[in-house]
């Protein structure tokens, strides 16, 4: 997005007339659905488009895991989850912009950005051919340069052209990306075979609540198939995993389904295999940058910090960037000043980068397929411990599914806080380990006898505590209240379990 005049942009945030232009790629291949958790819904509400999204999405009941031996397990989401096609979500956001600012934003669809000029904040675009005939006639391809602008916003996804420009022009621009072989996707939209019992029938709850069918299996390599419902009873079929590398042809995909995913093969029409073979192979890298801005250009969304879309993180991170950018620009005042604009972009970088890095860590830990099994188990354990220890004493009694709820609803500030408390936790654990080792050493070398150590150490500690904090002091009152609180929480949980 390029904005010709900053003061006018600032007035847009204040709901006054403004001229903006948006450029879009063709968006071809966006056939997948996204699942939006509580955090995403809060972000959409803050952006004022939640109702529009609700009207176009299906409320998911949970995930139906099909084992292959006929034992299907439905895990209900412990939170409200919305399922919407990526195309509908983009369309909803663009339509909302068009309705709210009908005369002030110019949209240029089917234009691909091929380069950026950071001196003028202008961008070079080529118009994309919409048909084969157009593609054949080279005259149909038009190269355009956008006029100079005060601000250039790169929201062009994980393989961002604006970011590539920053990598070659911005000094000290650090960047890293990680491709995981299991993060390969193909997505198509399917209508299930007439008469087949679709995954929606497996849901047992109220109208418009449907289940997500998830099936994992392997033919040497892992393959995961997800069917995500749309309002019109069609499904987004997302096939992922490294097995896709070995199945480029229709027949190979058909064979893959019949051998590894027979339940899904029964549900989908034969034409789906051809559509999957023709669909582009998508990769979803995890991306991190050392900063988000250069001169008057800024990166937001997946362009700035693409992350594996687990724990329903990703869409919300992009919307959180937009909200933060709007706030920083509003704070920077109405005057048209390059210095203030750059200050606002610097502040945005400082605010959003650590939060996004922490969220990306949480998303990685939540993906069971990531890394070696021991590594990912340790990462999940680490986040579990962090969430429990950092929330408050009450969270010590959290049950595993409540951890998921907490992870998908916590604010970015919370996620960041958990991450920063990790150092303290680690230091505490190391201290405990070191003192235990010293005691063991003293015991083993005979410097200390177990019989004499325990009572004397304990009574000395208690004497010190009594001296330092006499009965009735604030510490004891707070401790007693916290223990009572935890007891109540545990008893509450026990009664629901029984
Ligand atoms: C299979 C799959 C499942 C996912 N599931 C979830 C989920 O459950 N929950 C969730 O929150 N997120 C999910 N995501 C991520 C989500 O779809 C978005 O990709 C993510 O939120 C990033 O959004 P974005 O707007 O920053 O980038 P994108 O969604 O990638 O949008 C970038 C836009 O820029 C355009 N563009 C790109 N390059 C150019 C160019 N050179 N010139 C002009 N325009 C360009 C593209 O056409 C597109 O319109 C999933 C992604 C995939 C692939």
TrEMBL record:
The keyword tRNA-binding does not apply. It comes from the Eukaryota. The keyword Isomerase does not apply. One of its GO terms (molecular function) is kynurenine 3-monooxygenase activity. The chain crosses the membrane at residues 423-444. Keywords: FAD, Flavoprotein, Membrane, Oxidoreductase, Transmembrane, Transmembrane helix. Its cofactor is FAD. One of its GO terms (biological process) is kynurenine metabolic process. This is FAD-binding domain-containing protein.
